[in-house]
Amino acid sequence: MLERATMVKRFEVQLYNTEVRRIVEVGEHHKRYDDEWADPHFIEIEAKDEHEARMRSERRYPRIEGFTIVTVEEIDEG
Is residue 44 included in any domain, yes or no? Predict the structure, then answer.
């Protein structure tokens, strides 16, 4: 019997960096990240579901480094 392949979906993730935002608000610059990270960024992640997309995003942009995920939404391919 053939197993059904897991459908990979595309998700748009909105995130920013809270540390950069805080530092930029007082007129300083973050040592590691560009000032642009104070504003929302949109990235695309491929995953089987929203939970996996969030987990992959958190690995790539860790909370411990100041990243905050705002939304994770499936991209309608229709």
Answer: yes
